[in-house]
## 1
Amino acid sequence: DVAEQLTPVLLDGLREESLQLVSKLKDSSSSCAVDVSTMWWEAAGCRELCVVTACESSVSLWKPLASDRWGKVYTWQLGEIPVIQIVPLPDTCNLVCIALGDLEIGEIRLLLYSSENDSFKRSLVKTGNIKAVLGLKDRRLVSSSRTVQEQQVEIVSLSETGRSKDGQTLMPPEETVLAFAEVEGMRDALVGTTAANSIVVWNLKTGQLLKKMHVGYSYPASICHRAYSDSGLLFVVLSHPHAKESESCGNPAFRVIAFNPKTARSTGVTFSSLPPGHAGRYLEGDVKEASAAAVLTSGAIAVWDLLLGQCTALLPPDPDPDPDPDPDPDPAGGWALARWATTSACLLAGQRDGTICLYRY
Amino acid sequence: CSESDLGPISLNWFEELSAEAPP
């Protein structure tokens, strides 16, 4: 019955690309999901892709059981500072970072499992007035933070046991960096988006700021999600939380833009707009490979193929209607989180009540 | 997009910008 209720609405006849509900997990001890992610966990010689859920005061690790069920392995209880987001570290095992703070990130902590003595630990990685953080390949973490006078962009390397090794600083741009993305296939290249709507490119090895390129005035406060270089161009996937609807492009949630880093000129490649007739705008989302997913202000989740610029599936705002309707229902109820697992084959969708649904895409 | 829109394209843009940028 549940699977039937949650069957996503398909658009434009793209029926081969749909979302299939695989399983649900709900932490009975928590009422609200702040973030969800996946991490590899290896214990007793067995390596499994696990789900990590965060509520304001704790982070839990869930392992797959038989019959598409999930069992909680461990919960890290955190202090008085609320958890804001999970910061996954790609291609690592038994390590995940979390960002904590009030309104803004005040500290980043590492949560880890030691298979040597079968114990769960935590350690402090960084404190400060942190504006953006991203886990990079090879157990590295990049963050931007601000003091009154200046901005610091720093890379911290983490060891297998979680201890921070020497950090490296990158040359900061004048504007505050609000998001980072690794340039796929280029180990030493990193891009960021700034508060003044520019893309900046760094050389991670030397710390040099190589280029600053303006995104344009039509789409303020762009956030970078993904970047890759092809045929001498830098392709960047951006989301536009504050984009205004236009006749030519509809209401764009994501755009793929090609930059020529030599000249700083750019051109739009694809627009991924809200489905026709769908009111509201982009709230938050995630990109993996050519797939993008976002929670909309209506409480729905939309999924796009970024190469086609086309919406391929939509989870309606109220996927699991209460048989005894609330007399005062939340008008924007439904979904709160949309995250891809380590591949775009699995979507983790979080409801406002803390339930996480796993969909095969 | 054509090359004329974006200006001259270099496959080695990362190395070239790294050589040009201040250390």
## 2
Amino acid sequence: MPVFHTKTIESILEPVAQQVSRLVILHEEAEDGNAMPDLARPVQVVKMAVDNLVKVGYDTVNVSEDQILKQDMPPALQRVEEASFLLLDASDMLRADPYSAPARKKLIEGSRGILQGTSALLLAFDESEVRKIIRICKSVLEYLAITEVVDCMEDLVKFVKNLSPVLTKMAKEVDLREKELTHQVHREMLVRSLEEVKALTPVLISAVKIFVSTKSQGAGGVKESQGNRDFVVRKLCDEINEIIRVLQLTTYDEDEWE
Amino acid sequence: DAPEMVRQARVLAQATSQLVNAIKGQAEG
């Protein structure tokens, strides 16, 4: 079971997470009492990287219209910044006393804080990207809701013209997201629903067409063709709602659920 | 084409790895 639910987050955090946990184990196993080297330079490099990240993070918050992102990002940025202060403190303390035990503790807390803060930051950002995809899915649902007012060929042409680009965009975004996920089951669920949506789209257009021509001919079978059209719309909506549900899943949710 | 924030997070993770390596080098030695 993967720990990080996207390949991007995994590639960024997995290596450092392993190193930090190894550091914690080393610290717990042996307070070996050796003198620490001068860590001023690597700590300074971390501090500069934190400053850049914090700047870009607040820029992202300022330009975003996503209220949840605006709420979630600042605490994560503060966490990263506070962790970098712990590292700076530790580095200063070690210069004065290379054997300082409190300094070693601060190094561990600082490294852990950077990891946790960066993780929270990336998750907040990722969730906001997912919300963007969900908005696209919801706009498709909105288009599908107006299927029932399509009752002439002219409307049908306009309906298809409007629906096609937003459906294509949704398919592209969901496809990219699926490839980003580390969780195989979630990937398969998205692939299955997306395939279903693709297969149902021409069926929907055909069902609307049959309804429109049946109605215009004034012949029997209007009710049946309307029922068929509504059935296809419902199936499409169900699949899109399933996509929305799966997009919001993380491996963490599933662990909790189990 | 990763957004700038993701790129900066990667840079920080790499810098932290190097720092932890420096600390660990001492702890393991």
